[in-house]
Amino acid sequence: MAEPLKAGMAPDLILDGSYKVRLTAVDATTGAVVSGVIVSEVAIQATDLAGTLQDQAPMPMLVPSDQPV
Amino acid sequence: MASADVQILGSGAKAAPLDYTLPLGSELLLKAVRADFDGSAAATAFLPALEIISDAGHSVGLYPTDVAVAAGGSASVSFAPFLRNAPSSSGGLTSQFGLYVSNDQTMAAGATATMEWVYSAGAHVLDLTDAFNPTPVAAGVFFVSCICTSGTLGWTAGRVLRAQIDAVNATFPINGVHNEEPNGLGNILSFSVETLSPMTPTDHFQLLMQNADTGNRVMRAGPMSVVRMA
Predict the structure, then answer these.
(1) Spacing of C-alpha A39 from chain mean position
(2) Residue B165 has what pLDDT?
(3) What is the CATH number of domain B95-229?
(4) Which of A39, B7, B181, B191 is deepest in the core (most CB within 10 A)?
């Protein structure tokens, strides 16, 4: 069973187009990426300041950057 | 158009790192992110993390959890401003509880064996990369209690079951303290061994059992109750 965890992040983070949201797994000592960790079920809550995503129905969706849109 | 909150779903599953690039022309005020991290194939403990990369390719923030996930463990993680798992140093004590068991071992008369640790339930407080010498995932004061049992009937009268649990660390080693249960009835023997010591990820625990009977016996350890306080 997956362990529920929480992490803080900076408030008021404004991201412009072409910014990347990266989910990663790092080694606590070295900071290096730990291999073998699969990331899924990602959901992002944000305020759409430019109003470019609100008309996407039923819900805006992002695809991983290394996959074709 | 007025600003409005939106929920954006990230499709797919991928080995970390997983990147989502925001569409050109968009501008988002990030409020929260959640994701599942499946470390079934991870060889070491890890910190799930959110990282923001600018359009120029620079990292402008890395936000890891303050609790590591053990090798082979999984986590569902919520990222949002001001969240944390452990309180600040002035905020009090955090405790975690994990339950472990051990596989049965058939031991020859007089033999001593190091028992294996297998995760059962609760928090992954131990890294089982070396399942016979588990290490703390994070530093803390650990209390470990283990039920040790002679799994077979017919022990010889006067023979004992011995077990010890060691907290192997440089500062406060709790090592070599053993309990033993004298056998007067020939029944299955059972008792608890405990240890209490501050431990770090470079330290390890060790559970030893000895068959002091005259024939082969099945030795069984567990459940091992592990409490971490930090």
Answers:
(1) 10
(2) 86
(3) 2.60.120.40
(4) A39
Tokens representing B123 are 């928090």
- B-chain CB neighbours of A66 within 8 Å are 14, 19
Q: Which of B12, B39, B123 is opposite residue A67, by nearest beta carbon? A: B12
What spatial distance separates the first Cα and last Cα of chain B, rounded to whole Å?
Answer: 49
pTM, 2 dp: 0.54
Q: DSSP letter at A64?
A: B
pLDDT tens digits for range B125-150: 999 999 999 999 999 999 999 888 87
Residue type for position B195: T
Residue of A37, A40, A53, A59 to mutate, interface with B, max B Cβ within 10 Å: A37
Suggest the residue from B21, B36, B62 to mutate for an interface test with chain A (most A CBs closer than 10 A): B21
Nearest CA in chain B to A34: B46
Residue B196 identity: L
Q: Give B72's contacts in chain A (Cβ within 8 Å).
A: none
